[in-house]
């Protein structure tokens, strides 16, 4: 039996959309503005759900890797924005641990992570997570965020990953609302689907 | 800024190792035997950690897709055996939901899922999860399984995903022990790494 490599193509629009590699993102709000823009573009371009993420190096303020939700575009339920950004960042730095590669890495996410993405964070060598919309905001639109342990943000902090919440929350929620208003697909992949 | 596609190459040995596509796996033990063999081969071949997984169609008894842990080989902390198998299966059936693609899909895993893989299960359209070693067995070897919600198996059952535990547990644990004895890398990707 032959099995192909697993490939997640990145949408063509993404590279053109991103700013110069020299741009400095030195505040949580500036980093969040980029990922909210990514989420918004992702639904406008029809390449996936209303979620954007990116990995930044907090020392240099530079973008390491972007991510958008590509579940429907790539037929891959794993392709949430956060995991796309983490996989891309790890590929670019050549290490499965961003801290081992010398990065002081923040994952910025337009919405708080679902149970899968939350579980992925400690394996990636991150130092900080910064979130826009709350998971309750995603649930309000119809997305299932999964079964997260209670006080998940405290558990991350215990693992040495700082958590910033509600960064530009209202702008992040506006993208979720826009998706709902335009009748975007809610793709939870449940058995009854 | 240009960003490449995300690619997880599959080890060369995998296709040669797998049985004929005609082979029927009609018991949990027969399916578990294959994934334990995958885990064992993965450490012998030096392509990753002591974890194997596969997606089977319970109606036909056929293998849909295999997976092995490829974290170190692919520089990707997401490349746990379970997620490799799910991504491969979804690619092969052309749908991010295995149930929507008409599969009565079981994920068989040589060890109970970590928090990330557990969180991924509801998004994949699975009907059943079958596990060999317990997560406590993986912790005993040194692997961090993450912060899983209490009674995680009951939460999966509530979502319509049946859970079988302790299938060939002692054989599954033997592979974990073998990895520890040979001094295999424990790669949790924590910030202090």
Summarize the structure.
The structure is a homodimer of 193-residue chains. Chain A is of the alpha/beta class.
Would you kindly provide a written description of the structure presented here, covering whatever features stand out?
The structure is a homodimer of 193-residue chains. With 193 residues, chain A is of the alpha/beta class. In chain A, strand 4 (105-111), helix 5 and strand 5 (128-133) form a beta-alpha-beta unit. Chain A has eight helices and six strands; from the N terminus they run E-H-H-E-E-H-H-E-H-E-H-H-E-H. Chain A has a single domain, classed as Cytidine Deaminase, domain 2 (3-Layer(aba) Sandwich). A five-stranded mixed beta sheet of chain A has the order 3-2-4-5-6, sandwiched between helices. The longest helix of chain A has 17 residues, at 28-44. In chain A, helix 2 (28-44) runs parallel beside helix 8. The two termini of chain A are 29 Å apart. The first copy, chain A, has helices spanning 12-17, 28-44, 71-74, 81-93, 115-120, 135-141, 152-158, 169-181; strands spanning 6-8, 52-57, 63-68, 105-111, 128-133, 162-164. Strand 1 (6-8) of chain A pairs antiparallel with strand 1 (6-8) of chain B, so a sheet runs across the interface.
Any chance you could write out the topology, listing elements then pairs?
The structure is a homodimer of 193-residue chains.
Chain A: E1 6-8, H1 12-17, H2 28-44, E2 52-57, E3 63-68, H3 71-74, H4 81-93, E4 105-111, H5 115-120, E5 128-133, H6 135-141, H7 152-158, E6 162-164, H8 169-181
Parallel strand pairs in A: 4-5, 5-6
Antiparallel strand pairs in A: 2-3, 2-4
Helix pairs in contact in A: 2-8
